[in-house]
Amino acid sequence: MANHTILVHNKSGTVREYVLFKNEPQANSTPGNRVFQNAYINAKSVSDTTGTANFQIQTMFSAVTGIELVAKKHITNETYESPSGGSNAKIKMTDGDESTSKTAKFKDAITDHVVVKVCQNSNGDAVPGSVVHLKLVEGKPRFHSLEPQETCNIDGSFLISVDGSLDSQNNDKFFVGFSAGDPYNNGDINSISTIPAHPNTTNVITPISKFYVSWGSQSFSDTLQASTIGSPALIDFTGKRSEKAEVVHNKNGTWTVTYD
Hints:
The chain is mainly beta and 260 residues long. The protein has two domains: 2-57 and 210-259, Immunoglobulin-like; 60-205, no CATH class. The protein is 0% helix and 52% strand. It contains no helices and 20 strands. It has strands spanning 2-10, 16-21, 39-46, 52-67, 78-81, 90-93, 110-116, 120-122, 125-127, 130-137, 140-148, 158-162, 174-181, 188-196, 201-205, 210-220, 225-229, 233-236, 244-249, 255-259. A hairpin with an 8-residue loop joins β5 (78-81) and β6. It is elongated. The two termini are 19 Å apart. Mean pLDDT is 76; it is low at 70-108.
């Protein structure tokens, strides 16, 4: 679990509504309200000069492994549940395939996943991340144990240790990686990233933790439907010891981002 705090201080000269996005917001032509379609959290009526929007974010990470049945696939809204029963998380999967006309379901390729912790070195106190151990069981990669890391060399990371049971002749068909989800949204997984799994290796996995903050407004009437969104500020916690960001919305429309 990763916990982040983003404080947005309104110094823009007027009352604002601030919106937090997981992906960079893209303007859409019609209808106007779709500009906010990937909004994650919003804070309404933040007063000028003294007002602050307080965004609290928790992200649940899971180690993922499986067999790459076909070429790279995309994420969509189909749900997969762990066959090992080691996690309550659910993973949203795909039917698409980028490099072949044949279709295959990515969920068929996943053989195991387990919730992990990422390590942090904050305030001089190290918070150990997880070390997950992987081996081949009846021809399929499985996680067989999990323990805390002894040291935290890279903030925001966890380890996947692969033993020698994986067939070195078939490196390309096995993968490891991570999935990320929101524990307040039924544990649903919203992204997956993978790399090939090689025998007798230790993989340092560092999930990317980026968020975007913008201000916005919407107008609706019988004759007009419009949305306005400002250029977003990027808040990137990846590899940082800090779990807190201070964001100032300046009078000229720019942003100042600092990390505590």
